[in-house]
Structure formats: C-alpha cells, structure tokens
Amino acid sequence: MDEQESLPPHVLIFPLPLQGPVNSMFKLAELLCFSGLHITILLTENIHNRLVLHTDITSRFDQCPGFQIKTISDGLPDDHPRDGGKFLEVFDSLRTKTKTLFKDMLTSDLLCFDLDGKERRRVSCIIADGVLGFTCDVADEISVPIFCVRTISPCCLWIFFCLPKLIESGEYPFEDDNLDELIKSVPGAETFLRRRDLPSFCRSGDLTDSNIQLYKTEGQENSRAHGLILNTFEELDEPILNQMRTICPNLYPIGPLHAHLKKKQTTLRPSSNSLWAEDRTCIDWLNNQLPNSVIYVSFGSIATMTNDQLIEFWYGLVNSGQKFLWVIRPDSIAGEEWRSKIPVDLATGTKERGYIVEWAPQEEVLAHPAVGGFWTHCGWNSILESVYEGKPMICWPYFFDQQVNSRFVEKVWGIGLDMKDTCDREIVEKMVKDLMVLRKEEFLGRANHMSKLAKNCLMEGGSSYSNFDRLVKDIKSLSD
Ligand code: UDP
C-alpha cells in the first residue's frame, strides 16, 4: 500500500449559505474531523467573511491539522443583500454560476488538502446540502462518491418526497380555501396533517411556483447520492424515517448535531458559528432569574415581522406577567422607527420583566436553568436545540418547513403549542401562561422525556452514535 492510500479520506463539505445549514454542517465537519478524516469545508465568500467577523474560525482550528476552510463565490456582487427573504436570489445564483466554478475547483486541484506542504491530496468524498443538486451532477461527472445532507426537518423532507403524489391525487393545489382540511397523500400523517401545515410555499396554489418545481424532485435528487445524512435521531422521527427509507434506503440520522459535537469535543473550545455578534450580557441577566421562570423568544436568522405584529407580540408577553428574554434581530422588523414608537406601558413592562438583545448565544440560553420555555419560529435547529434541553415550545412558524414542524411539536410530540396563522396579543398571553404556568408540568414532563431520549442516542451504542460510526466506516470504504 503506498502512502497516499494509507491516509484518511479527504472529505469536502459544502453547506447551503444560510445560518441554520452553516451551523449544523460545521458541526458535522468538526465531528468527522474528530473521527480522523481530513476535512475541507467550502463556504461562500460572503458567509466566510461574516464568520471571520463574528467568530473565532480563523484560530479555532489551529490545533486541527486535518481541517481546512476554502471559499467559493456565490456569484453575486459583494454588496448584494442576502438576508431576510433574499435567499432565492442567492440560491438561483448558486445553481447557475457556482456549479461551473465548483467543478473547476475540484478538477484543477484548488480544493486539495495540503499535507505539511509536502503532498496535495484530492477530494475523495463529497458531503453537500441535498438542495444543491448540482453537486450530485459534478460528483457523477468526476466520479467522486457523494452523500447528501438535509438540515431541514425529516417531516418536511417527507412532504417534499410526497409532492408528486399530492399533485397526482389532485389534493394539491387545493380545491377550496379550507385550510383545516386533512391531507391524505402523505403516508404516516393522514390523521393530523392539515393543508395549513404544509410548507408555506404550498399556500400559493401555483404549480409553476419555483419552490414547488424545486422541491418536487427532492425524492429523486436525494436518492442519487450514496446516502442521506439527517440532523435528527431515530427515537424522535422513527415513523417518518421509516417512510423515507422506502425512497432513500440509506439514511444516517446522526443528530442532534450540536450536542453530538459537544460529546466528542475534547480539545477544542465550544464553537460558535454565528453570523451576528452574540450579546452575552443576557447570560448575566439569566443568572439572576429563578429556575424555569423565563420564556426565551427568538425567531431565528431569517424571519421578519411587521411593526403591528411586533406590538401584538410585545403586549402579549408583557401582559402574561412572565419574565422574558427576547432576540430582536436588527433586520427583522421593517424600518428602524419601531424603537421610537414603543408605547410607554410596554417599555415599563419590559424594564420590569424583560431583556432584549439583537442576537443571543442560543444553545447556552436554552441550556440555562432559568429558561422554562421557548417561543420559536420552529426552525429545525432551534427545535432540536430545545428538544435536547427539554424546553417546551410555543410555535409561531414563519415559512418553509416551520409550518409542518410546529404541527409536529403540538400533535406528534406533545411538547408545545402551535400559534400558526395568528398574531394576537390575547392568544400570546394565554399561550405563554399555559406553557409557563397552567400546563407547565404536563409540557415539562414530555419535554424532559424527549430530552432523555436525545441524550441517550448520543451515548455509546445509542442510535445516533451508531449511525455516525456507520457513516465514518462507509466514507472510508467508499474512499478506498
Ligand atoms: N441562533 C443563535 N442566536 C440567536 C438566534 C438564533 O445562535 O439569537 C442560532 C440558533 O441556535 C440556530 C440558528 O441560529 O442554531 C437558527 O437556525 P434555525 O434552523 O432554528 O432557524 P433559521 O435561522 O434557519 O430560520
């Protein structure tokens, strides 16, 4: 065996350039690196610049000779807006402009791993976000094995797999505007999935909608790869995973990724992959609060709201009488003028009971004993982080997979309340009181049980632990 063959596989990881996917795929990259593989993570220049600005990525990997970061253009000018609803433009540009660049970089050795300046190793395996279908084309063309990752929820991905069936059966587009009608063409979800719980873009009822066109081929696209890596664990999503296996037999549910990494992390500092600066003063504030007394409110990195919605939410929170820690991202509300328009009673109520930051160290916040509940937009990372820490949720889904995730939180897992399609101060007040006071024990009991399952699956012999082992072995055998 020559030296090249005895070296570990060199895996290229290509995340979708959004906060959620970047966060979870960075964790996957670090996990694989801890398992002895050589890793190149490929970031768009824009994401890389923001990570350099707000995190320690330039120094975090100093002690990891098997890890390198490379960049690629997303094809848009530097000053093009990419946050808050602009993502489809980024996505289009990736598909049309980045594909060629990606292939060129792979074939011209620009993505090689440099071993002490002595030897340059080519990529022997690709792991890419499954929505970047062009990576499967390129992998085929250059004969490199590829695994796909989906960082959205399996329940939403399963709906994508069923979209052709929904359309064929005539269930979609809807015949009338009754959004409470049950959906029959998504096996395993016939008793609880309503039209209103389908991914948000299904509301358009337009078969030519670019989202419908894109996601209805997901079943085909993901089954082209050697296997599909999912950020979930068997015990949380078993019925849905079993349905998915009928289309993609080789699944690797290895989540929750953030916690999986923490378990293996021995030498590195806990990692932040935030695209915004974290305001750590909220941890000091939490340190002065009673156990389970604070509701943490955050709607993730993309969701936006109107001024009116902001005020309704704010009144609901203040009127609930509960303590709250609220993340209001600077770009999440149209216009800056809201700051000067806050009614005096809200400002006073917030001073007494609330704390507001622009971006929080969320994993740490959710792990804090003072936090007793999470009002979330139901992004998949946020849900997994909350499940792991045993925090019940109020769900205000904004878009995409969040509509179906919130249904699962309430109806399937029983660990929260779904506030979908409403924005009313009285409903907010009631739900916060229910979650934090009146039905607290009921929700905490189920959330704690789920949290134990999440922790057990990462122990030696647990489902995610074993699936991750299998993934590493399969990468090694395919890269031989
Ligand atoms: N997050 C954070 N601080 C915040 C809000 C969010 O660190 O103040 C992180 C959160 O922990 C999660 C990610 O940002 O890992 C958001 O991903 P998610 O899938 O929940 O939602 P998205 O932002 O993609 O809508």
UniProtKB/TrEMBL annotation:
Gene3D superfamilies: Glycogen Phosphorylase B. It comes from the Eukaryota. Keywords: Transferase. GO terms for molecular function: quercetin 3-O-glucosyltransferase activity; quercetin 7-O-glucosyltransferase activity. Belongs to the UDP-glycosyltransferase family. This is Glycosyltransferase. The lineage of its organism: Eukaryota, Viridiplantae, Streptophyta, Embryophyta, Tracheophyta.
